[in-house]
Amino acid sequence: MQKIRMLLWMLLVSGSMMSQSDVYVETESFIEKGGWVVDPQFVEQMGSPYLMAHGFGERVENASTSVHFENTGEYHVWARTKNWVPGSWDPPGMFKIMINGRELEKTLGTSPGWSWEYLGTVVLQSGTVGIQLVDQTGFNGRCDAIYFSTSDTRPPNSLEKLMEWRKKITAKPDVPEQEQRYDLVVVGGGIAGCAAAIAAAEQGLKVALIHDRPVLGGNASSEIRVHTLGIYGHFERILKKLDTEHYPNGSAEAKKDQEKRDNNVKSYANIDLYLNWRAYDAAAENDTVRHVDAANTSSGKRKRFSAPYFVDSTGDGWIGYWAGAEFSYGRESMDTYGEEWEEWGELWSPKEADNAVMGSSVLWGSKETETKQDFPEVPWAMPVAKQHEEVNGEWQWEFSRNDLNQIDDAEEIRDHMLRAIYGSFANAKKNPENATRKLEWVSYLVGKRESRRLVGDHIFTFNDAKAGTKFPDAVVIETREVDVHYQTVLEDAENPDFISEALFYKTPKYYIPYRSLYSKNINNLFMAGRNFSTSHAGLGGPRVMRTTGQMGAAVGLAASLCKKYDVNPREIYTGYLNEYLKLIEAQKYVGIPESKK
Amino acid sequence: MRYQVWIIALFFMATGFSQSGLPTAVSDSSRNKGLIRRPEFYILDWKRGTQLKRKPTTISIIVDSIGLQGVDALVDVAGRPVLYASDISTPVCADGECRLMHIRLYWTLLGHYAGFDHYPSFPFTKHDHDEFQSADYLKLHQLLMDNNSILKRRKVEELVDKPIAPKKDGADAVAGATITEVKESIVTGALYSCYTAWHLVHGGVREQIKRRTLSMMDDNMFLRMLDSNNPEYQLFALKRLNKEQYEENYKVIAEVFESGIPLVRTFIIKNLPASFWDSQEWQRPFWECFAKIDINSRSLLLNHLGKSPETVLEDISKQLGAMTKNQLKVFLGHLASLDGVNPSIWNNLRAFSNSKAEANAYIVTHFLEDHE
Predict the structure, then answer these.
(1) Domains in chain B: boundaries
(2) How confident is the model over A243-299, as pLDDT tens digits?
(3) Domains of chain A by range and CATH?
(4) Which of A437, A448, A549, B225 is most buried, by CB atoms within 10 Å?
(5) Contacts of B168 in chain A (CB under 8 A)
(6) Cβ contacts (< 8 Å) between B176 and chain A: which residues?
């Protein structure tokens, strides 16, 4: 019972709106998740990780937990949830709550926007109370928290007020309970972050690698399943520990590479791996990051990570953003860096800057079975899918729109893609030849291509790739074509808005300078991954994961020299470049242990 | 691109263009002559009675083992170029066996694909010597319309049997789906004919044609392009209009905005001179399209709310259901920033807020709670 208590964020008195009896339960802390998944992708937008019934049309098993109530009494019950497709149909993500084995009458997941839905009152005895989430639809019902109160005052809906309220009832201090110090803190366990951690660890640094998922690899992980592209550059030895085979995007083969990747990273004794920890803040003083705060995505437990150097491999540039780093978003005017490609005009680089970016993908697939398979009607998906029919989703399943920000509106983007997938599959199922076909897998994670780009001393552009500029501090090498995506709906409003097209520019071998891998104005911040210092068109080539892995390995090694000389990233370029380049060359080969020399 | 192609295909079918089997191909005797009928497969508008004469140019295409083949301008009665055309005979080779393909190709003034004709006595054939059927010609037309086809980036050998071998330096957009993409885009059994035709159409001739057009460009040609239904022409003209030309042609530009593709609309709205937003008359036609246009264009239009007259706000308040969630928030945010708002706008907000049919009604409800 002690353990159960630890998992709950129980109310302690504060403020007049709540009593000592009240109980607040974050669903991600449920002991048994059943078929529900923890979704921590949108914490910055809606306030918390939440549980979601991701059953692609089949009801998932109940999630369950036990809670200790101090007092017997009549409790008002609210659940924070959301009807993720409001409209003139039954909400797709309906669920119920069961308390001590009795299902409450009220169906949840029916109010648009994240809000508290009222379930009425229940009489509970003091002691252990069992709570279950009961999925009704299999289509992404979601529940953030459940609140039991002897008062009939509903918790606030507005995010700002809710955060204040939550802080009060959980009585959490501003500072995390624990602080740990490292030589290097890497945030984001995609291929870039993993490579940074390995490269630094091999040079003897004590590294923290913080990642908000249970598995490593980001877009390459078995949860998103994009294969890695690009070349190894100087870092073949390290990147082969992390990359994937060239299976079709969305393939279940991603699981094999997942095991390899996780085992390889875990084999480094001086990497402390924090899986299921999500960074939520970074503090800078005098333009220097002092610490990053992160929370466990299930327990809510928090830690502070201090270090002289940090790597932002979050993809969205969160560490830089919180620390006050300069960043860019959207497409520059073709005149800003002279990135015009006349053949593709506005689709490549616009005359006037705008906030259009390459979109996010949600991959999925189905399989043939030996028996007839039904798929439910999904009227709520049809306004997106329209007449589109498909049984698998590849990279072209991509969504971007200029009223949606890839970070702030990521949940809407993901949900739009889910509607596109379910609707297109439902259309395909009407074809008799798909009678035995069954949805096999649908990701619920947003596979982003482009979001915030932190600004470094050099902004890598399409022209750098086109010219093959060999920078003195070239640390990343690539031969892959530059390809920039656009939504086909721009060419015809009747096209599905979730399908993209790629424009390819064949470049010579090109290079990315080290100066694009550390922040211009935050002294001790490296970046590796899609949030490196680049223009929109510049990102077209090196956004793929062997290339971003090269970036990671390069900054991991740079961090080791920073520590050695107690200098900041910029000073590696200005004062230690030769040694840095030699170190990159030397790490290609496994060293002979002292004992065997 | 592929979807656009299908729409045009459906248009042909809907207009009876291919109802009686294959439309009449260009007659053999018309080879190297002008054009008095709409080409068999064609993407531009064709006005009844149009008569185009051939006028030789210095542009040419090099065809393997045949040599140079000339490209002519097709000019109207005033001598103005309308199209470019070439009657081409080209070898199509597969497995060491070659045969000639005879085709008349058409290009736009900017060197983009405009259409093709074939000769009845020289039907296209597939690898197994079967002749093309009507659907095959149509599919070839669709392929040629796709200027970003996978055929552009691959050698023909890479498209046979195993169309794309896994490549470590491959591209994001190749991956596993490409096999399907190739199969879907070419005429079954006629890969080599498709490949040859595509590269003839989209080869170096494009630049030569465009250069010639640019050398002859005048204001009249700009305006004809602007007033066309061709997005490439529209964008080409819009990029080259100066402020005064935008102002002088505001009615045409507003019409293009209303009927154009989203890419053209977004260009217009981003590049209209500031003077448009200072004039109620000039900006009005753009707002009148508010509910009809695509989401991206509407978002850009909303950036100009600050200079819109109150009548526009009132009109939009009657069309709240046309907006996305974020667009609605932009509009409501603008209302909140104003000192006073017409009571009829509040009434429209209340009506929307109470509507059960509107998915985003709750956003307006929250807004009213905070601001009334």
Answers:
(1) 2-207, 217-371
(2) 999 988 988 889 989 999 999 999 999 999 999 999 999 999 999 999 999 999 999
(3) 2-170 (2.60.120.260), 178-328+451-596 (3.50.50.60), 360-442 (no CATH)
(4) A549
(5) 229, 231, 246
(6) 247-249, 251, 394
